Amino acid sequence: MLREILRRLVATIPVMGVVAIAVFALLHVTPGDPAIIIAGDYATADDIAKVRTKLGLDKPFLTQVGIWLGGIARGDLGASIYSGLPVTTLIKQRAEATIALTLLAMLISIAVGVPAGILAAWRRGSWLDRGVMVFAVSGFSMPTFWLGFVLVYVFAISAHWLPVQGFQSFERGLWPFLRHLILPAITLSVVYMALIARMTRASMLGVLSEDYIRTAFAKGLAPRRVLVRHALKNASLPVVTVIGLGFALLIGGAVVTESVFALPGLGRLTVDAIIRRDYPVIQGVILVVSGVYVLINLVVDVLYVVLDPRIKY
Amino acid sequence: MSHLSRRHFLAGATAAAAAATISVPRVHAQKKGGTIKFVPHADLKVLDPIATTAYITRNHAYMIYDTLFGTDANLAVKPQMVEKFASSSKGMKWSFTLRDGLKFHDGQTVAAEDAVESLKRWGKRDPLGRLLAAHTAKLAPVDKKTFTLELAQPFGLVLEAIGKPSSNVPFIMPARIAATSENEPIKETIGSGPFKFVKDEWQPGNQVVYVRNPDYVPRQEAPSGSTGGKAVTLDRVVWRYIPDHATANAALEAGEVDWWENPPLDFVPKIEANSALATFVTDPRGTQGWVRPNHKHPPFNNKKARQALLYIVDQPKYLKAAIGVEKYYRTCPALFSCGGPFESAVGAPGKPDVEKARALVKESGYDGRPVVVLDATDIALTHGAALVTRELLSQIGFNVDLQSMDWSSVVARRAKKEPPAQGGWNMLFTWWIASDVINPAVHAGISGAGDGAWFGWPESGRIEELKVQWARATDKAKQKQLAEEIQRVAYDEVLYVPFGQWVLPTAYRKAVSGVLPFPAPLFWNVSIA
Amino acid sequence: MASSVPALRGELAVAPAADRPGLGGRTRRLAGRHPTLALGVVVMALIVLSGVLAPAWWTGDPLEMRPAERLTAPSAQHWFGSDNFGRDVYTRTLYGTRVSLIVGAAVAVISLLIGTTLGLVIGFYRRLDTVMMRVMDGLMAIPAILLALALMALMKTSVRNVIVALVIPEIPRVIRVVRASVLSLREHTMVEGARALGARTPRILVRYILPALMAPLVVQATYICASAILFEAYLSFLGAGTPPHIPSWGNIMAEGKTYVQLAFWIILFPGLFLALTVLAINLIGDGLREILDVRG
Is the whole-model pTM more than 0.90? Predict the structure, then answer.
C-alpha cells in the first residue's frame, strides 16, 4: 500500500510539470507588459527596454522557463515584479485566510450535505427529499457573490451580529477568527454542500435498494445504525470523489468570496497579479494551488482503498 | 456658464465642510497613541515616488519622507526641512541651510548631500523638476548642512518647484538611495519623515503599516498643509485596501475602519446622515477631468478631428455620468482650474454643437477607421466619461472601439506610442488635482514636446515657447497674460478637453480628529479617541 | 441509444386521463412523471423568449443613459429601477439574457465538439492515451476560474473571447468523460465484430461509439451550459468578463455591486434571472439524465 502511494506521488510530478509549463506559456504568450508599469510614467521606450532586461523578460522563452524551473527545484518561486517581495513570502502571508476559509467551508458542506443526502435518500419521494433536492439544485445555481451580499446585508449590516469584512488571524484568538470567517465560509460552502448532498443521495439510493440493506432492516436493526454503519460506508466512495474533485470549485468560489468579504487570501492575490501581469506571482500561486489540488486527489485515491478494500490498483 | 454656478459649487463644498467636525489644527493637548485604520483610494504597488506620479505612492511617501519646502493651506510655499534660505544676484543664486535634528530612519543625520542627490533624481523625472534642472548651472552641497543652487538663466519658480505639493514631490532620501538610476525603482524605504514603513507587515493588495517615528523632530509652527510642525499623535497607521466600495462603506459604518479616503459620492449623503460619521472636503480646490486625444495617430493627429471634440464635450452631461452628485461638481472652462490664480475662459469652447462637430469630422477627412477609446471600468469617473464619450463620438460619425480594462492596464497601455491597431490608443480619460494643473509649469498636459510630453504626445513649438516665457516672467500681470495665451493655443490645438471640476469629500468616524486640508491624506496632527 | 422508461419509483403518478396517444398526451405524461424537468423546460422557455424577443417586451435602449434618473427604485417608469448611469435595469436584464444564453450555448456546443473529437481519438489510440491524459490531468489541476481569468487577461474583453476563455478549461473535462466511455466501449463485442469485418477506425468511432455517447454528452452539455453562464458572471464580477457596454447579467451585477446598500435592485434582478436560468438548465439536465437513464 505504501508503495502504491509512493507510486502515485511520483506520478503527480509530470502532471505538475505540465501545469508549470502551461501556466508559464500562457503568460508569456501575452502582449501585456509589466515593464511599462514599473518603468514609470515618464519612461521612454529605452527606459522600458532597460527595465525588461533587468527583469529578465527579454531572454528567449525557453531560457526563462529553464530559469524558473530551476528556481522551483531550489524552492525559490521568484519575486513579485512590483513589490519585490519573494513569492513564497506573499503566499505565506495570504495562505492562512484561504486555507481557513476553504477548510471551514468544506467542513460545513460535509456536515450539512452528507446528512441531508442521507435523509433525502432514506425518505425518498417525500417532501423532505424534494426539499433537499430543490435546495441542492438552487445551491449551485446561485452566483456565490450574490449570496454573499445577501448574507452580509442581513447578518452584518442590518443585524450587526457579524463583521462585514476582514480577517483575524488564528493567533489573535479563536472567536475573532471564527467570527470573521462564518459568513464567507457559509457563502462558499453552499455550492459544495449542494453537490455533496446530491451525490450522497444518489449514491445512497443505489445502496439502499441492495438486498443486504433490506435484510438489515428486516433484522430489526435501528435505522440510524443501518444507514450510517452499513449504507453510508458503501455509498461513501462517490461522495469522496466529489469531495476531491469539487475542491477545484471551492478554490474558484474562494476567489470570488474573498473579493466580497475583503479577505486577504490567495484568491485575491492571484486576481490582482493576473490583472497586473505579475508573472512570478501568478505562476507561483497557480502552481501551488494546483499542487494542493493534485495532493487532495491523491488523498482521495488513498481513501478509496481504505473505504473499499476490494479496490486494488 | 451653465446654471451650475460657482456659488452653487462652493456652497456644496462648504456644506460638506460644515457637516464635519473639523478641529482647528492643534499641536498640543491631543490624546496620545492609538491605531487608525484607513481605507486608501488604491492599492500601493510602487514604492518609489519619483518613478510614478500615482497619488497612492505620493501619499505613502508623505508618511515616510520629508520635504525641503512644503505648501500650506493657502498655496504658499514655506520651509520645512530648511532652516533658513536666501537668494542673491537677482534670484540667480540660492542657498539653503537644513535645520537641526533631522535624522533618517536608520539613524544617519540628514546632510546637504542627501538633499542635493534627491533633488537631482527628482529633476530627471518631474516636468517642473526638469525645467528647473534645465535652468540650473550648479546644484551642490557647501558643507554638511548647506547647499547652493546657481541658475544659468532666470527662473521664477525655484521655491514653487522645490515645495511642489503633488506628483512628483521632491522627497528627500539618503544620498546612496537617491543615487539609484531614475529608470529603476528604489529598493529601500528609508526616509526622514514622521512615520516609519513596517516592511514586514506589508501585504500588497491588502494592507500597509506605518508606525510613529519617535526620533522625528517637528517644527514649532502649527501644521498647515505640508508645512509646519508634523507632530504625530498616533502610534500606528494601518492602510487597509478594500477594493469593493460597498464593503468599505459597510466597514466604515460598522466601525471596522476609521477613515475612508474617497467614498464614491453616492455614499456621501448616507454617510452624512449617519451621526457617528463625518465628511470633510480636504481639497476644496478640486479635481479636473480630462478627455485626452492621442495626437500621434489618426484620426486625432488631424486638428479638425480634434476640434470636433470641443463641440461635443458637454460638461454637465459628463459630470452627471462621471461624478453623479451635483452638490460636488461644477463646470469649468479653465485649463488651470477654477478657483486658481490663472483661471480664465479665454479660448474655451462655447455650447456643445453636434452639427458643427459632425461637419468638422467630415472636413478632417476621417476614413472610418476604429477609434480606440480606453475605458478603466474600476474607476467610476473615467468609466462614466468613457461611456458618455462613446455615445457622443458615435453620434458625430466616429467608429468607436471601446476597450474596457482596469486602471493598471490603462496605465500600461497609455504608454504605448504605437498605432492603435498595434496596441496603442486614440483616446483616454484621466483626472488631476487642481494643484497639479494650477499653472503652466506644473501642468503635465500643457506641453507641446511631442514624444517627450505626457501621454497623448502633442506637438506644439508655440506652447513650449510660451511655457518658458511664463517660467521666466516675474511680473504677475505678465504671467496672467501669458497663461491666457497658453490656454488659447492649448484649446486651439486641443491638447485635451476638460470635462469639469469636482471635489471629493473624505469620510471618517467622529472619533477621528485633526484631519488637515491638503490634497493628500496626512496623518500627523490626527488623533483617534 | 438506450432509452428505457424508468419504473415509477415513488414518483407521483399522473391520472390516466392523459393516456391518449399523440404528442399532446405523451408530453403531458412525460411532464407528469418528471415535474421538475417540466418546470425547468417551462422556465427556460420563458427566459429564452425574453431574450430573443427582448425588444418586444416593452423595453427601451439598453445603452441609453439618463443621468437625471440615476439610482431610482423600481417604479412604473423603471420596472426594475435604474442604475448609476440612469440606464433601465429591466431593459438591460432582458438584453443581458441574450448574451448569457449565447455564452452558455456556445461554450457547451464548442467544448463538446472539440472535446468529443479529441476524446474519441485519445480513447481509441492507446499510444496517445497515457501522454495526453497526463496533459489533461495537468490542465484540470488548474482551477477553472483562474485559468479563465488568466486567459481573459491576455485578450481584449469581448463576448467571443469570454467564450474562448471558458471553453478551454472545459475541454479536458469533456475529454475525460468521452474517453471513459470510449475505453469501455472499445472492447465491446460489436466493435470487435466490426473490426473483424475490416471496418476502419474512424468508421468504428462514428458509427458505433459515438451514438452510445450521445446520451451522457447531452446531459453533460446542459451542465456545461449552466456552469458557463455562472462563470461568465464570475468573470464579469472580477472585472474580466464581457465588455461593459454590452449588458450581460454578470457585468450588470458587477457594476451594481457598489450600490448593494443604496440600490440593491441592480444586483437583485439580474441575479434572480441568472439563478433561475441556471436552475432551469440544471433541472433539465437532471430530468434528461433520468429519462435517458444515464449514469453520470
Answer: no
